[in-house]
Amino acid sequence: MPYELFYWPGIQGRGEFVRLALEEAGADYIDVARGAESDGRGVPALLALLEGDGLTTPPFAPPILRDGTIVIAQTANILLYLGSRLGLAPQDEAGRLWTHQIQLTITDLVAESYHTHHPIDEDLYFHEQKPAALHRAGVFRRTRLPKFLGWFERVLTNNPAGDTQLVGGATTYADLSLFQVLEGLSYAFPMATAGVLATLPRVAALRAAVARRPRIKSYLESDRRIPFNETGIFRRYPELDG
């Protein structure tokens, strides 16, 4: 039975971290909201799951993964579930928890990136909170972005199995997620991100290595990969890049 991924169809968003894991593993999955309504899919199917009263553990928001009778929400939680099943996490408990910890840190970075263009109110447009966004983005570029990416460089440097993966000697979902966040940051803050990456050779090398992985490369070149746009998490407003 294929996995069912429920996420908004027009953006990469947080669902993309799950898509990358499924694609890397060659897993059989259905991107439900991108399917046809005539087949019982599309956005109505997503909303039916999100708003349905039948679940005793209702999800708050997408992404949502359904695996048979199991329904899981929250990106990091989904990846924790999928990691060992897809061969994208260590088998030992300490390794699984460390991979999950890295993913939670990536979640923090994603949230801080989003709040550069929506620092006050998620229901206001960017131009309605632009002065605050300019200030927030400046702090993000100068201090938060180097701090986060520098930490990933340190994790790579300290990995006993080698500095080409974040955890152990094989690719995990944390590597895929770091690749995705770097792609998003390079879209939203091309100048700032390039400047920081120039000082972090291991992080830059990991990004390039993930992009070369056969299944990821095929996915990135396919129409399954939704382009970045100004309705997703990572948005390009040139004035925020300094």
For the sheet with most strands, the description reads: 4 strands, mixed
**How many β-strands, per DSSP?**
4
Overall pLDDT, averaged?
A: 96
Shape: globular
User: Which strands sit side by side, in order, in the main sheet?
Assistant: 2-1-3-4
Structural category is: alpha+beta
Element pattern in H and E: EHEHEEHHHHHHH
Strand content: 5-15%
As a whole number of angstroms, the C-alpha radius of gyration is 18 Å
Structure description:
By secondary structure, the chain is α+β, with helices and mostly antiparallel strands. It folds into two domains: 83 residues, Glutaredoxin (3-Layer(aba) Sandwich); 133 residues, Glutathione S-transferase Yfyf (Class Pi), Chain A, domain 2 (Up-down Bundle), CATH 1.20.1050. Helix content is 53%, strand content 6%. It has nine helices and four strands. The chain has a four-stranded mixed sheet with strand order 2-1-3-4, with helices on one face. It is globular, with a radius of gyration of 18 Å.
What does this entry show, briefly?
The chain is α+β, with helices and mostly antiparallel strands.
Write the layout of secondary structure elements.
Elements: E1 3-6, H1 15-25, E2 29-31, H2 42-51, E3 64-67, E4 70-73, H3 75-85, H4 93-117, H5 130-158, H6 173-188, H7 190-197, H8 201-212, H9 214-220
Parallel strand pairs: 1-2
Antiparallel strand pairs: 1-3, 3-4
Helix pairs in contact: 1-3, 1-6, 1-9, 3-4, 4-5, 4-6, 5-7, 6-7, 6-8
What characteristics describe this protein?
242 residues, alpha+beta, Glutaredoxin, Glutathione S-transferase Yfyf (Class Pi), Chain A, domain 2, 2 domains, 4-stranded mixed β-sheet, 9 helices, 53% helix, 6% strand, globular
